[in-house]
Structure formats: C-alpha cells, structure tokens
User: Fold PhnD/SsuA/transferrin family substrate-binding protein from Serratia silvae.
Amino acid sequence: MYGVSHQQVEPFWQALRDKLRQLGMVEVPQELSWPQDLPQHWQRPDLLLSQTCGYPLVTVLPQVQLVGTYHYRVEGCSGANYSSWLVVREDEPAERLDDFRERVVAYNSRDSQSGYNSLRALIAPLAREGRFFRQAIASGGHYRSLEMILEGLADIAAIDCISFALLKRARPQAVAGLKIIGRTAAVPGLPLISAAGTPDSQLAILRAAASAMVNHPASESLLIGDFSLVPRTAYQRVAELERQAANAGVTAL
Assistant:
C-alpha cells in the first residue's frame, strides 16, 4: 500500500520473496501483482500476502488472517500506530479545522481509514445537521488529493503520514506549497494479511520473513522500522471512530 512508485516497492518484494524461500516456502510468486480491484483481491481464497487498510479490515474482511503490522520511522507514527496530517495550501490563512467549514475537501476513497474515516470522526463534533464541508471530492489517491489542493480544486485533505513522508523524500517538489495544520486520531497501521485458509505453518513463515525484513536495506526506502503482530481487537479503534461520527449524525464527509 506504500511507495511513491511500483519501482520503489519491487526491491523490497524481491528480498522478501527470497527470505520466504529460504525459510522453506516453496510456492512463492515470482512477480509482485498490482491488482486494480483491491476489495476483490483481499478476499481471494488463495491470497498469500497483501497489505490492507484498517477500515476494510474491520468492515468487510472478517475472514482474513493477520500476518502482522510494520512500524514506520515517520513523524505521526508511534510504534505500530499511525495518523494522518490535515494538509492545506501554504498560503491558506486558516489555521484550524473549524475554519474550513463550507470549504471543499478531497479524499482518496470512502473505504480509507487515513483519508476518510479518520477525518469524518474529526469533523463530527463540528458538524451542523450532519454536514461540515460544502463539497467532498473523491480523488482516487492521497497524492492526487495533494495535487487537487495545489491546483485549487480542494482546500484540505487528510493524508496518511507515511504516504506524505515517502512523497516528501522522493519528490519534494510535490509537497512544496503545502502545510500541515493538524492531525487525526492514531490507530493501528496497515496490516499484512493472508487468506483464511493459509495453513499455520505458512503463516509462521510469512511472519518470520516479514519480521526479518526490518533489518534488510530494502526496508529503508519504505521507511520501515519494526514489525509486530497487532491483535485484531486493536483495530476496533477504527470501528469506534466510525460509530462516533454516526452517533453525531455524520455518515459522510
């Protein structure tokens, strides 16, 4: 789910693939796949390893098994938890979320914790009759949301702190002209998952290999710092944020 480009992720996959084979996993795909339909991909019965978001995990993926969660060496992260930055134009005079009432927000997708669910919970106490923003536009991705802000098509967005850090390091010009005015609540980070039918023996190898990657040079480009097995119960914090917004009468941005 992370990486400014596919090419940035490929070396990590190649190293992880080699570790899986060294640990005894025979049937490992040679190539990394980049599915367009992520919800369908995450629910495949033959899914070996993927990374999902905490929001779909608690809403539509009760059957998948958790492999573990990477920790990232990024401001906005603490251990396995992460949050999103509230990003606006640098020349924007407003400094508080409350100042963006009746403005335009961009979000990556409705099934995103970092770009949608987290922000919805944040605006809930500020909303009037279930509304806060004048318009909410689906951008299709965090990086496009940032472009929309710079282009004047949107005024604010909640951007995953890891995505923001990766973009800032790889393409600093892409975040020039932007500033951060706040952050969302912290929740457990994006988990690695495997299909419900993955045998325990394979699950153990997946965890061992994923953990071993923490010390591999290929992890540095993705800002990975540690790995742990976060229990599924910890991800209920994501569902709590959704309930908090719903209880305040806010069901959408």
About this structure: Residues 53 and 158 are 15 Å apart (CA to CA). DSSP finds eight helices and eleven strands in the chain.
